[in-house]
Amino acid sequence: MPIHRLVARAVEKPWGRTDIPSHIATNDGLRIGEIWFSPEQAIRLPLLVKYIFTSENLSVQVHPNDEQARQYGLAGGKSECWYVLDAAPDARLGIGTTQDLTCEELRTAALDGSIEALMEWKPVQPGSFYYIPAGTVHAIGGGVTLVEIQQNNDVTYRLYDYGRPRELHLDQGVSVSVAEPYAMPDHVIPLTAETQLVASGAPFTLDIVQGAARSRREIEGEMLWFIPLAGSGLIDGQAWRPGECWLITGGASVEIAEPMSALLARPAVAQCGADQQGIDAIPTMAPRALAS
């Protein structure tokens, strides 16, 4: 089939929340930090879509780029982006550092905890959007609900964890970090906008699109992720609603019953090469969760 509704898999986290919207997941009192959308089979896809729910700060961390990751014998690196759906009044995202740091300065700051004050903490609101290139030192603060689209490579180097008794990865993390101020402007993209959020040149592209009630939208592409944020309708005859994620291979027809807002993510062409024969041709990879 050219469309696949991906399975929502809840991941418990110590920094998660119990107030997950019911249309996304039933938490049964668990502290859910992430919802991963993945196929029923253990297959490797080039992108991973997540919902993230935080009650406290996540670790300060960094991801390598593809070339750096392969030097460590890994499949690839990880760039990602965040679209904020909800935020507490004091919610913040840490992206980049307030000044350029040498490798030794970054290591020292991670060890003595001063890295927290050296992070550039950006206040956020619904609609805040940031693309996080590999190498960017970053952290998600508490009180945030967001959608994350990322390269599907499980590689995270933790630099600082607020004194929690968890492993740090200073050698690898410092070596791949670009510890400098974040160069891209802040963006607040309303849920009602239609624009490209991540352009070509990145490992993936991302658009936010709209659809009027009682209309139809044709979606074309070799492989893309349809992430409805508002509305309802049918996709190739199957009902869709917010809180879901659909993998489309070869295009689909989206019927819109209630006004739609959705994200559409596409991997870069080079990362689609393994998918020419469809979803069943993608090599097997068992996902592994790493606590953030």
What would you note in describing this structure?
- The protein is mainly β.
- It folds into two domains: 6-188, Jelly Rolls (Sandwich); 195-270, Sandwich (Jelly Rolls).
- It has four helices and 20 strands.
- It has helices spanning 66-71, 103-112, 115-118, 170-176, and strands at 3-5, 7-17, 32-38, 47-53, 60-62, 80-87, 92-97, 119-123, 128-132, 138-140, 144-151, 157-160, 187-188, 195-198, 204-211, 215-219, 224-235, 238-240, 246-248, 252-267.
- A hairpin with a 2-residue loop joins strand 17 and strand 18.
- The longest helix has 10 residues, at 103-112.
Topology:
Blueprint: E1 3-5, E2 7-17, E3 32-38, E4 47-53, E5 60-62, H1 66-71, E6 80-87, E7 92-97, H2 103-112, H3 115-118, E8 119-123, E9 128-132, E10 138-140, E11 144-151, E12 157-160, H4 170-176, E13 187-188, E14 195-198, E15 204-211, E16 215-219, E17 224-235, E18 238-240, E19 246-248, E20 252-267
Antiparallel strand pairs: 1-19, 2-3, 3-4, 4-11, 5-12, 6-9, 6-11, 7-8, 7-10, 9-13, 14-15, 15-20, 16-20, 17-18, 17-19, 17-20
